[in-house]
Design a protein that fits this description.
Elements lengths: L1 H18 L6 H11 L6 H10 L1 H11 L1 H4 L12 H32 L2 H22 L14 H16 L5 H11 L4 H27 L5 H28 L6 H21 L1
Helix pairs in contact: 1-2, 1-11, 2-7, 3-10, 4-10, 4-11, 6-8, 6-10, 7-9, 7-12, 8-9, 9-10
């Protein structure tokens, strides 16, 4: 029985590692998979598990982008990299709206919107938005082609899009922020990277909140399950991030839009006809 639960944690880690970074909604996939592959753990542990394994995914960003996110250099002058400090200020500014919503309304949001209908609808809506925005931007040159060109105003707008994802599961945090960035003229590469960096404080904060609610009291087996899921999510996230950054250098995001629409329709069909 324990071996089966470990295998479930591995599968969930793989799904988290892929869907956290591709703009397809990790929440939507987790809800769908949980219908067929439920961890034999307490509801409180599962709620915490689905959030905290994202820390493994976040560590992939830290490892891959260390030189772009760590502002102190022991080999170069100046010692403090001003551009990286400014980038982190932009990240903090963009995170504030979602952080406030999360702290004040986390339980209420889960109660009202954490369901099949909301996830499916938001998958479909933002899938359509991706296709529409990419068609609208076709032939246009981005106005922000590197992180230094991304202004504080742009960061605030991207942060407001992140609020949509914080309230409505299925939107996809990465999907909402990338879409917001594309709408205001940020290049695909910069939009994706800024989304990665935004995830660091957001996911650390969300994970800490869930751990506090859970109580930091674990059985040995719960620690094992959480560790396995997080480690797998870390490994798979490295591959997923590298894939996404390579893909968007030559392609747009429309394929993810179509995928979202198809998945949303499947979720609605399952909910109304099979569940």
């Amino acid at each position: 029985m324990e071996f089966i639960e470990i295998m479930k944690a591995i599968i969930l880690g793989i799904i988290e590692g892929i869907t956290e970074w591709l703009p397809v909604s990790s929440t939507g996939h987790m809800i769908l998979v949980d219908e067929f592959l439920q961890l034999n753990m307490s509801p409180a542990f599962k709620e915490m598990f689905f959030v905290v394994i994202q820390l493994g995914a976040i560590m992939a960003v830290v490892v891959l982008y260390w030189k772009k996110i760590f502002p102190f250099s022991f080999k170069k002058k100046p010692f403090v990299q001003k551009s990286i400090i400014v980038m982190w200020i932009k990240v903090i500014v963009a995170c504030l709206p979602a952080a406030v919503i999360g702290l004040l309304f986390d339980d209420k949001v889960n109660e009202l919107f954490y369901n099949f209908q909301t996830v499916a609808i938001m998958l479909i809506l933002f899938g359509i938005f991706f296709i529409v925005v990419e068609n609208y931007n076709k032939g246009k040159s981005p106005i922000a082609n590197d992180m230094d060109q991304l202004t504080f105003k742009m960061a605030i707008i991207i942060g407001l899009f992140q609020v949509i994802a914080a309230v409505f599961p299925g939107t996809s945090r990465s999907g909402a922020t990338i879409l917001g960035a594309l709408l205001i003229g940020v290049s695909r590469e910069v939009a994706a990277e800024f989304t990665f960096f935004l995830a660091i404080p957001v996911m650390f904060g969300a994970s800490l909140l869930k751990l506090v609610k859970f109580g930091f009291v674990f059985t040995g087996f719960e620690v094992l399950i959480l560790s396995v899921g997080s480690i797998v999510a870390f490994i798979v996230s490295i591959l997923a991030i590298k894939f996404l950054m390579g893909y968007i250098k030559k392609h747009d995001f429309k394929v993810f839009g179509w995928y979202r629409i198809i998945l949303g329709v499947i979720l609605l069909g399952y909910y109304f006809f099979l569940r």
